[in-house]
Structures are given as structure tokens and as C-alpha cells.
Amino acid sequence: MTDNDALYWWSARDLAAGIARRDISAEEVMRSHLDRIEETNPAIGAIIAMVPASEAITQAQEADRAVARGDELGVLHGLPTAVKDLMDVAGLPTTHGSEGFRDAAPATADAMVVGRMRRAGALIIGKTATPEAGLGTLTFNTLHGVCRNPYDLSRHAGGSSGGAAAAVATGMLPFADGSDSGGSLRYPASFCNIVGVRPTPGRVASGRPDNGWTAHGVLGPMTRTSEDAAFVLRAMAGADPMAPMSIAEDPELFAGVTAAEPADVVIGWSADAGGIPISDEVAAVHADARAQLEAAGFRIRDLDLDFSGAEDAWETIEMFNFFASYREQAHSAPETMRPDLLRNVLQGEKITATELADALRARTTMYRRAESWFEGVDVVIAPATPVAAPPAEVEWVERVGDVTYDRYFRWQMLANRFTATAHPIVVTPGGFHGELPVGLQAMGRNRGEAALLTHTAAIEHALGYTLRHPNL
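RESULT FIELD:
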């Protein structure tokens, strides 16, 4: 068997179907992924905590017994995964990548989305790396170091869902979860040549304790293809009475997602998302992807996207959310916090009622403006990141072209602008600059994830980059 035939490269859908048919066992699947983690994780640092291997094998054996008994099986039955280290997993500590939680006790209960994945049959075996408090789009912290890019170990994997992206890209996991308020799903997906889905707010129910009504930060799946993303979203999505914004649509709407016909898809194209600085390398990959898609039969129209007001609105809401989440730690133990995080909390503390009201109004305007872009267009595409994966020693990208950034989140504006629209977004592989992946950022209509994923699946079939794996 070649490496490409190994179980750890199978799609999540094929693994689940094989387990259900008893063509393969959940134990075989688990052992394959555990071996892959042992082989590749030391160099990458994607998974930062695990249950004992014996416990993981026991979970898989019980999954096989359920199949043998003829039990009703969940969508993700028998599939191993690990959870971003911002959310609780019963029996494992949640460190938030922070010195302040270095000695955290194991959690006693699962976070809402973790419980949903378990009920769908997923086998939770560990935690994936994140920067402190999910801060920024690069994953590093003093507890676990840098999460490295599997395509070039001298580069970042991205963040804040960097561990999830690197683990999926290397075959350590068939899928993972991520969260995103300013590109935390999207930047690492782009850097690691995988698919990341920022769903419509409320599509994946959130148990966040501070503001359960926010449309800002969302949870979503990370996979190697859009068809797998739809498969996993089918398990993650759904209403929950404890999540006031959760969408009460049947998740089975994701069951039949397949690639659209290129000739049926009209793409609204933006080279720079309304004026964001883009490196020459990313611009060249983006232009080449457009040419390939046109040759494949997609119809493409140029769009002039107006994001006026979006960046200021995003910053105000983001800083306010940091204050809401970390104000106690900022006042009781500021010395345990990364300086950028403390600065965010203190900035959020000073936000006035007028500033917050203006930001919420601007976000509402931005949503309505974005919805108007879909007149005669099925999907809106822009670059996912302004540069390819940066060197592992940097804490943020300080310069793109002639523009210099003074804060870590300024170079994230390709993501932040789209966050302010509150529309679903998929980042999908768009090409390579040398050995480094470059992604496309595709936005769909509000609550239109199923249609959006048919479009990005078609793009993946046309471009072929989802078939490329890192050479470790």
C-alpha cells in the first residue's frame, strides 16, 4: 500500500461509510491516525494534549461493537478527532495557550459543539494548538511553542486554528473543528491547503458564556475538501435550546452536497477585497486560479466591493469581546497575559456606548450591502490571505507591499472585512507559490452554506489542489 492509499488520507465520508459497512474497523482507523500523529506531530506541534493511546483504542473498539450490534450510527461514527484548545473536552485540561491556565485541571464536561460531535459518533482523542486566547492568525505560545506548516517547517501553519489545520493537512485527523472571528479558520486553511468553513452565525450552536447573541465569532469544520466539510457540518450544525442564535434548520440539508457544474456557477471576482494590499506572489496565484476556472467553464464577473466602515466595526466589536471574555484575568493577573491580549482587553474596556452602537450599525449596513452583491452572482471570491505562510519566528506580518502594520490584527483585514458581513465563507485551496499553499476566500448568501459548498467543491475539482499532500 502506498502512502496515498493509507487510511489517514481517506476522506471522512469514506472512513465513516467503510466503518458502517464493516469494510474497515474503527480500530484500524484509530491506529492509523495514532501512528500518523506519532510520526509527524513532533515536528509540527499540531496536537498539544491527548488521551492515553489505550483509551483511544478502547473508544474505537466500542465503536466497532456498536456497528456489530446494529446500533443506529451517527454521521461521524468511529472517526477520531481533536478539539481546539479554547473549548472544553471532559477529561482534558483547557489551557487557552496561556500561562494563566498552565496548571488547569481537566474539564468536567464537554463544550456544546464537542458534545454534538460526540453524539454524532466522533472519538475525541486530544486538543489542537492555538495561540493564547485565540489571538491572531498565527499559532504560537509559551506553553507549546510554534505550530509549524507541514508544507515548510520553517513557516507558520496559521491561526488561531493552526493546530487543527496542520493536523488535517498531514493526515493526523480526518477533520477538526475551528473557530473564527478574524480569520482563525480561514488563514490556517489557506496556509495548509485545506478547507475551512466560517458558517453563518448560529449554524453551529455555541455555548459561549459571555454573549450568546454575537454574530462575530463562529465555530466551523476544517477538512481536506468541501464535500467533507459539508459531511462534517451535517454533524456539527443544528439548533440547541441553550444557544439563542442557533439556526433551527435540519442539518440533513448538507447530506446531498456535491460539486456543481462549472457552467452553472457565476463567480463575482475581487482581486483585493476592496483595496487590501496583496503580495505579488498571492496576486499571481489568484490570477492563475481565475484563468484555470474560466478555462473550466465558470463564468466570472469583476466586482468592486465596498467595505467602508467594516474594519472599524470589526475592531470595536473584537476588542469589546476580548474585554468581555478576559476582564477578570486582566485585572487579577495581567502578568500572565500576552501583551497584545492585555492591550486588547484594556482597549475594549474603554469603548463607549456610542462607539459600540456605531459599530453594530455599521455591521448591519455591511450585511445588507454584501447581500446585494449576489445580484446575478452565485459566489463572491477574493484572496484568502495577503501573503503565503510567513516565517515561523514572526509574531505577525508587519508589512505587505508598501503598507506597514502596527498591530497584529491589521494584516488580517482580508478576513476581518468579510467577518463584518456575517455571511458564510469557505476558504479552499487555490494554488501554490513554490511549495507554499495559497487559498481562495469564497462567500455565499446568508444561510447559504449548502449551495456555497457545492460551488467550492466544483472549484476544487477544477483546480485539483486538494489532491496534493505535504511531503514530510
